[in-house]
Amino acid sequence: MKRFSISDIESLIGIKAHTIRAWEARYNLVPPKRTPTNIRYYEEEDLKHLLNIVTLNEKGYKISRIAKMDKVQINDLVLQLQADYNNDTVQVLRLSDAALKYDEIAFAEILSGCIQELGLVDTMDLVLFPFMKKVGMLWQTGAIDPSHEHFASNLIRDRMIVEIDKLTKPDRKDPKRFLLFLPEAEMHETGLLFARYLLKRCGMDTLYLGQEIPYNDLKKVIAHYKPDYAFIVLTSLNLGKDINKILTKVLDYMDVPLLVAGSLISEFDILLDDRLTPLKKVCEIVEFLDDL
Length: 292
Known about the structure:
This protein has 292 residues and is an alpha/beta fold.
């Protein structure tokens, strides 16, 4: 059974360690286990219980009130709240719980419910992107295993492909051509697939190359396809902090305008270049495409 430190729990549920300790001291909420050397740890059931507590707290239940409930009462209330797909915080927590358990059925049901109630664009913006960013950070810190990230990413990828296939591309006079790819060392396709969805929805033409495209191939592809724009997404923490170095290298291999999105773009100062357009938010991508 996997064990979690209090710092792991802090990252997983988004509540500070000192708050968790205060709940424990004041209300005896989820007391930790201890090793023979008195180091505190939590097990998966403790994590699930804390996730439920946070879910109720996010919905306005005071901790003092939650502390008077037993686990069955808490579970029943959370089950009622889970149908509220407009509460993105609750849905992120639910996806986190399903991913930790490798529960494919639960993960797919949560994802379907969000898309049905919110639509794919808001689901990506409010639920899936925050969830994937959180999962990536947890993987980097060792709070979860790489397999948890792969499990969630592949389920989201499969659903994105389904949603793209369901779209009917509208007729558009002289649609722009977009080359979509991920540069070397970038393997996370979720954002790029979402860009493909938005482009198809707008009636644009796309050539989708996917992940880790060698730089030397770009000139050949561009010469053949003749895109109006190239589109990349940067999200992997493995790329390091020098994002501008990557952008400069990509620009060196192409002579078309480059659109770049992804969580890393929001975290760093991006170089100024006439051919480069950073799109830091989903609404910025949508507005850019609407203006074409």
